[in-house]
Every structure is written in structure tokens, then in C-alpha cells.
Amino acid sequence: MLCPECGKRPATLHYTKIVNGHKSEFHLCEVCAQEKGEYMQMPGFENGFSFHQLLSGLLNFDASPSEPGGHGGAPKPHIHRCPTCGLTYNQFSKIGRFGCADCYKTFRDRLVPLLRRVHGHASHRGKIPERTKGELKLRRELERLKEELALRVQAEEFEEAARLRDQIRSLQEKLEK
Amino acid sequence: MSLEHFMQNAISEWMRVKGPESHIVFSSRVRIARNLTAYPFPMLSTSSQAEAVVREVEEAWKKERDSHPLLKDAELIRMRDLTDLEKRVLVEKHLISPMLAEESRHGAVLLSKDESVSIMINEEDHIRIQCLFPGLQLERAWEMANRIDDWFEKHLSYAFDDQCGYLTSCPTNVGTGIRASVMVHLPALAMTQQLDRLLPAITQVGLAVRGIYGEGSEALGQLYQVSNQVTLGQSEDEILDKLQGVVRQMIQHEELARQRLLETSSIQLEDRVHRSYGVLAHSRIIDSKEAMQRLSDVRLGVDTGLIRGVSANVMNELMVMTQPGFLQQYAGMRLDAEQRDVRRSKLIRERLSMEKDQDES
């Protein structure tokens, strides 16, 4: 959305003011917010609070367990950098955007908890491009069948379970080809 | 430029058609984000890489032109070929994002003639396919976006990962890359002070609500955009179903509130909508805040049958046409805020008198 104050710049600052129990929400661009002096009224947010900063707040919150020795901002000997585009995780956590598709692989370990926090899930269940579809579809089907098999076994429906087992076998063979 | 001619440019063809539930839902939009494997995301791509992305998309489009009339008549517009005002007008029509207009060095948009399909290139992601339909038609919008996506995919290699789905520059879009949104008009819920309870409930189920114009719960013109937040871990159909379900409930609540208002304070409501019509039809200076509120009232009057002889579309049209970019385009020059307020009231008067002429003829 555009900043309603100037109508020119995108509104990046979104906040709610509560005065005497009366709640009002504001959406401003950073320039207008500065002019209105709204920045000053928000302790702790001297630089405003834009969407990407909100996201990076989530990112920094994630004290990565995979990298030990985070002694309160001591420089790390090894900087995790995407080999394809050169983006570091630090840069990502500041701007809230990845540089290329490979960043998802590079930063996977740290990304999973973040995705859970943002989406409540960490794995895709939607559309699959036609090109990758064939194999992936089979693998998804395989997973589904395995889950069902477990349920059937639990419910002692052995006839159905045997049928599923055969289906799983033939799928596995197909995938191995 | 005559008003009629200007309107031809100002109002997207898709807006002229009446959609389902149009008494409350103005439009449905689905946009999907896609990236190409061969290039870094736009934020980090070099000029030549960004140009290559535009070329690849252009070529894919040319190969698929005959797949659908919407693609056949489309036009590829590069941001660098547009003036600031032209870009702003596209933003006000919701056809491109402010980011594409302002930040993108090598941005382009592939726009269908009726403007229901707009494909942004080199925005935050390489490709953003957006489909707009009048009224509540989320499924149709998704179906169209999905088909275009399929056609493009035949020629383009998309960045996709088994686990994360379609990879996007910002992890808040990853997975399906889908953002579905519905624009709803909720004047009766606002008048009966029920929005304060309704809107927080919506955010609790993982959807976002925001005013389209103005601030928060007192959104100008009581126009809200409801959209999905989650893009990962749910299928497109699940995402759309959930949004559609919530919007249907909002429609019911709004309908009920309108009915109650008509039953309990009919004369007050009648007074309010006609008073607003009077202001729009006769004032000589009007700022955008007042204009939005009056237009919202009149639209409610039309939708509840209290005002006759004005087509429901007038409000949607005027909401777009009275934005600063449009006013300046119509005037053919830059205008300051005071000049805009005068032009705005003039434009509204002219538009309303056209309605009258049509009514009499």
C-alpha cells in the first residue's frame, strides 16, 4: 500500500497506538513517519519497524544451535556464505530476503525453524511443476501409502495392509529404475 | 481529454463486469510468485541477468500467445519506458506494485488488454503472475493464474525444491508462492461497530486484513483486503478454501448488519446515504478522505436499494479515478493538494451527471 500521508512512497511502517484505551492503527512511509515525529514516540524502534525488520527480528531470535561458540557477538571464524550468490546468513537476517535459489539449500538448517514459525509448517504440499512432477509425485504417493499402511496395521486390517505393502513395493521398484 | 475517453483508460475492462457477491465483494485477486533457476533473485541480479530474465519471459509468452486470447492481446511494458505519472497510474489500478514502479531497474509488466492479467517481471521475484476478477471469484482467478503458470513452465525452468516448494526471494512467500486476496466493502459492520471484534478474529485464523485506503479499523471507505498469510504446508486449494470460507462469513455478517440497519434506523440510513450523495453531487472542494467516505455511503445506498439511478460501479470507478495519479493524468499536469481537491470534486460531479443522463435516456 502507498503511504496515505504523501501518497507517494510505500507504507513500510505499521503500528498501533493506544491512547486512553482508544486503539488506532497507522500505516506510513518512513519519511512521513519521521516528519510526524512518530519514530520518537516509539521507544526501542529508533529506526522504525518495517516488515523486513520484523522478519529479521524473527531470524535473530533464532540462536542457531548448529554453530556453537556464539559468545555475545564475538566474530565467528567461519562465515556461512551461499556459494552461488555470496549472500551471508547475517545479510539475509538484515534484509529478510534471499539472494538466489541455492540460498535455500545453503541455509536449510537455520531455515526450517524459521519456516515453522512463519508458516506453521516446513514442507510444501501444493502444486509441483510438471517437469519435476513424475518422480516427486511417486515419492509423495509412497509416503502416503506408508502412512496408511501403518494405520491399517494398527487397526489390524491385515488384508488391506498386505494390499498396500504390494503397492509400496511396486512403487519403490518404479522409483529405483 | 473527455471524461468518457479518460474513463476508458482509467477503468480496467474487468472492472466493468459485475461479479458474484458484488454488493459486498469488489474483487478477487490471486498472485503467484515464481523464479528462474538460472539467475539470482532480482535483488542480486546484474543488469544483464535481469535483462535476460525479461527476454526469457517474453519468449515464453510469444510461444504461448495462441494458448489464450488474454495472452494474445497482452502487451509487454518496460518500466524504463514509462513516465513517473504513468507508473503511478498503474499502481493506483493495482496492476503493478509500488516496488516495481519505484525500485526495479529492469522491471517490466506483461499486461492483458482487459487488465485482468498482469505479470510483473523482476519485482521481488523474477515472475509474479496476478489475475484479477470482479466479485468473489477466487477459484477462477487461481485457475487462470495456474494455467498461465503451466504455459510458462513449458519454456522456463522454475526454481523448485521438494521440501520448500517454489523458491521465492522472501521466505514468507515460499512454497505455493500464492497470495490470494479479496477486497470487501463493510460499511454496515463499521456503522454498527462490529469490525473491532470481527477483524482480530480473522487474523487469528492465519489471514491478514488491512484497510485498502486509510488507517486500520477506520479504513477509508470501509474497504478491506483479506488475504492469506501462510504459503507453505497447505495446498493452493486449502488456502483458497479457507479464505473463501472466511469471506463468506464476512458477507453474511455484513448482510445481516445491513438488514438490521434498514429495520431499526431506516430513516437515519436513508438520510446518511442521500446526504453523502448530495455532497458528492454539489460540493466544489473535496479531499480524498471525505470523498472515500461519501462514495462508500452512496455505494451502500445503491446496494441497499435506497438510492436508485446510480450504477453500483460508480463508487469503484471513482475510488480509483480520484486518486492523485489519476487526477493529474486527467488534468494533464501536476497538481498540488488543494488543486487536486477542486479537480476531484469536479470529476465526481461530472461522473455522477453522466449517470443521470443515462438514467433519463
Tags for this entry?
heterodimer, A: 177 residues, mainly alpha, B: Creatine Kinase, Chain A, domain 2, eight-stranded antiparallel sheet, two-stranded antiparallel sheet, 15 helices, 12 strands, 50% helix, ATP binding (chain B), Arg_Kinase (chain B), EC 2.7.14.1 (chain B), creatine kinase activity (chain B), ATP-binding (chain B)
Describe the structure.
The complex is a heterodimer of chains A (177) and B (361). Chain A is mostly helical and 177 residues long. Chain A folds into 3 domains: 13-49, no CATH class; 76-119, no CATH class; 130-176. Helix content of chain A is 48%, strand content 8%. The longest helix of chain A has 25 residues, at 130-154. Chain A starts with 12 loop residues before the first strand and ends with a helix. With 361 residues, chain B is an alpha+beta fold. Chain B folds into 2 domains: 3-257, Creatine Kinase, Chain A, domain 2, CATH 3.30.590; 265-360. Chain B is built from 15 helices and 12 strands. At the A-B interface, strand 2, helix 5 and helix 6 of A face helix 6, helix 7, strand 6, strand 7 and strand 10 of B.
Which helices and strands occur, and which strands form pairs?
The complex is a heterodimer of chains A (177) and B (361).
Chain A: E1 13-19, E2 22-28, H1 30-36, H2 51-61, H3 89-95, H4 103-106, H5 108-119, H6 130-154, H7 158-176
Antiparallel strand pairs in A: 1-2
Helix pairs in contact in A: 2-3, 6-7
Chain B: H1 3-10, H2 13-16, E1 25-34, H3 47-63, H4 69-72, E2 75-78, H5 84-92, H6 98-102, E3 108-111, E4 117-121, E5 127-134, H7 138-153, E6 160-161, E7 165-166, E8 178-185, H8 187-191, H9 195-204, E9 207-211, E10 214-215, E11 218-219, E12 223-228, H10 236-264, H11 266-282, H12 288-303, H13 313-321, H14 324-331, H15 337-360
Antiparallel strand pairs in B: 1-5, 1-8, 2-3, 3-4, 4-5, 6-7, 8-12, 9-12, 10-11
Helix pairs in contact in B: 5-14, 11-12, 12-13, 14-15
